[in-house]
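Lab manual, section 2.4: Encoding a predicted structure.

Procedure: take the sequence of the chain (321 residues), apply the prediction step described in section 2.3, and record the output as structure tokens. A sample record is shown.
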Amino acid sequence: MKKELSQEEIDAVFSGNKAETKQEPPPEEVAAFDLSHLDRIPKSQLRALHMVHENFVRNLASSLSAYLRSYVALNLVSLEQISYAEFIEGVSFPTGIAYLGLSPYDGTAVLELSLSLMFTFMEVLMGSKGRSTGTLQRKITEIEKSIMTTLLRVILVDLREAWRAVADIDFTVQSLASEPQLMHVLAPSEAVIVIAVDVRVGEITGLMNLAIPSIFIKRLRNKFEQLQRVKKAHSSGDDHVIVAEILQDVALDFKAYMDGGKISARTLIDLEPGDVLVLDHSADKPVRASLNGEPKWDGYIAALKDNLAFEVSGIADTVPV
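Recorded output:
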């Protein structure tokens, strides 16, 4: 017995054939992902880091100048993200490396001082004037490590204070070394933020490099966002009213003065009570009045009952009367 197909069944068959002949969409493009840069941080956070270390450099210049009793100039040269392997490759050998703890957080930062800078610091501490005598190419001794540890504490106090705007971090010296290749505190592929600071002591210049793991900075992302949200508040109309009420009782220094011309020292010495001194200032010429030393108004001296008064005739210009 033949079965007749309904119109709906016929339409379903043809629609199915169209679906089978429909072209497949092209495959989506696959982008390469660099697994060695998992800890990259955004540029906005880099700008906040730059601000933190600008404050650090500014304060450290004053602290080192006072500690060494010699003029020390510091300049923030760069702040960039690179791998720890790239950082180590750019470090000269031998050098001065300090490994820093980041308590109460896990992780280790690296502070590198060029040999010229490190030996200059020690010479100045020993009474030298910091003059250039040639760069020594040798490892630092145990006695020199002890001296540098004391100086590093001064540096870390200002570093800790600069970071206080973000979080309370206790930067401490864990160890000192001369060969960074022998200390595997970070994986070669781990991303770090390197802050390069140019330091000048007397005639000697050198670099101080601070490398901080990017993963550590990413843990503080929320604290950096709070730092970026801190902006200067705009005063409202109510604030203006409050400030105006406070200033109403503030004492101001008001003076009205005129150009008296020149007289000889003998005439000034011979002046006695009752003498009349003719001033080089005509009666119709305006008198200049000032407020806290700044010229504000032009006007005339007038009498008000038993007191002298100043009648304002206009706003003072920049040309003296």
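Check your result against the sample. Residues 18-22 have pLDDT under 50 and may be disordered.
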